[in-house]
UniProtKB/TrEMBL annotation, chain A:
Protein name as catalogued: Ectoine/hydroxyectoine ABC transporter, permease EhuC
Record-linked Pfam families: BPD_transp_1
Keyword entries, A-Z: Amino-acid transport, Cell membrane, Membrane, Transmembrane, Transmembrane helix, Transport
Species annotation: Streptomyces viridochromogenes (strain DSM 40736 / JCM 4977 / BCRC 1201 / Tue 494)
Ranges where the ABC transmembrane type-1 domain occurs: 72-278
Automatic annotation (TrEMBL), chain B:
Chief subcellular location: membrane
A GO CC term assigned to this protein in UniProt: plasma membrane
CDD domains named in the record: ABC_HisP_GlnQ
Pfam families membership: ABC_tran (PF00005)
Protein's organism: Streptomyces viridochromogenes (strain DSM 40736 / JCM 4977 / BCRC 1201 / Tue 494)
Reactions listed under catalytic activity: a polar amino acid(out) + ATP + H2O = a polar amino acid(in) + ADP + phosphate + H(+)
SMART domains: AAA
Record EC number: 7.4.2.1
SUPFAM superfamilies: P-loop containing nucleoside triphosphate hydrolases (SSF52540)
Domain ABC transporter: 6-250
Molecular functions per Gene Ontology: ATP binding; ATP hydrolysis activity; ATPase-coupled polar amino acid-transporter activity
Identification of the protein by name: ABC-type polar-amino-acid transporter
Amino acid sequence: MSSDTITEPATRAVEDPAELKIVPTRHYARWAAGAAVVVLVAQFVHGLATNPVWEWNVFRDYVFSETIVQAVWVTLQLTAYATVLGFLLGTVIAFMRLSRSPVLSTVAWTYIWIFRSIPMIVQLVFWFNLSALYEELGLGIPFGPVFVSVDSNTLIGTIGAAVIGLTLHQAAYAAEIVRGGVLAVDHGQLEAAAALGIPRLRQIRRIVLPQAMRAILPTAGNEIIGLLKGTSVVYVMSIGELFYQVQVIYGRNGRVVPLLLVATAWYVVLTSLLSVAQYYVERRYARGADRTPPPTPLQRARRFVTKEST
Amino acid sequence: MSAVMVDVHGVHKSFGALEVLRGVDLEVRAGEVTVILGPSGSGKSTLLRTINHLEKVNAGWISIDGELVGYRRSGDKLHELKEKDVLKQRTNIGFVFQNFNLFPHLTVLENLVEAPVSALRRPRNEAEDTARRLLERVGLADKAAAYPRQLSGGQQQRVAIARALALEPKVLLFDEPTSALDPELVGEVLDVIKDLASTGTTMIVVTHEIGFAREVADTVVFMDDGVVVEQGPPAAVLDAPQHERTRAFLSKVL
């Protein structure tokens, strides 16, 4: 297009269009809303700090006490066992469900159906009373002779029962998460792996699962955080995890609010650590997904600081 | 005349009620390039996929270098092979996809090394040496550490060709290798295939590039409606087609 077809603006105070000044819109309503929220937050923080009901001195006394730290350790162990075992079992069930064998996929479907249907707390109490259901557990030929048998209570202690309950519950959800991730992988990837003659298990481990991880991780992160907090329901089995111990202590001394704060603080800290871990694990599995991976918050902060100082 | 490398014999293939291949016979000799032309839906991609058993046939058989693909014959019965054995056979048959299907989470080098190490049990350092040599051959020696998505379509397809070559297959199958590429990237991929043709690699190429067929093919096969309509040297099939359907197709694409 030639320049003579452009109609000149009516006013020509400035000659060079690049010199025209741009005035951004003023967001008065946004500023007012921001100010109001800041006041409310300040009030809340002030209340937290000054209201004597919170009893921060009691909080300080207990937050790192031996009982509580030990209880946190139990909570972490329950979470770790149930996560690892739950996702292992869940992955097996997911591939059973995707299998071409109708027997395997039906069994997997039924497992998921049942364990998603039973509330976790109900299931835990069931496992707690396992010895009433099966007094002895034995190893032998199905429907045939039994070679070894043990008393079920000695084999599976209370913690064991809790881990089994959490694992079986978690596996049902993990199976669906893993299955979703596997279905999200482009079919061409499996075809390419098959065309290259890569062995079947290797196809799953090396080609499918790493790519499925991108879809699995956000939901899995949710699940693990849910599980961490969910371990608090095993207090019904009198296991000395965080929430149970906190209840024991305030049952004794009556300081309900500060001790609930102790539990809250620990859950928040642990969840935050898990969230950070999730961020970096997700980043690792995003390799190759972006042309240039975005910087981590740390890298960004460092860049910001160095830019400021220079 | 050299020996028959790929022998396709009376192959039928249906998807549900739709019969895609209706009795296809095809012979490809060692060291020759066969280009398959035909309108979409004529069954050319399906035929290619039956050759490495990505699709099972409903009738007929295919052999590579005298060995049945996907089946074992005893008497007058064909027994389906176990997946493990089919996978082993496929290491003899390189396949290049229209959409490249590179593994996006692995670097270019890892893409090339994966199958030789896991399927052929080659030592990793040996496989890496071969991979680097192949990358040099397709002009991408400097991209070994890149991830596939950091490459252009043409570069990705060249990596895919190198990945197929890494298994040193007896035959290479190309399923419309340039159809997903921008026009200016088609040339670089065709150049690599031409280079392979000049070194005596046995290849079957499904494509719409008539010029490429004329230049490189030893045999041009024209397929329509699930059968081979005619085949012969490019000069015969492309310039003096005997069948009305071939003439009609060529008049549309030339």
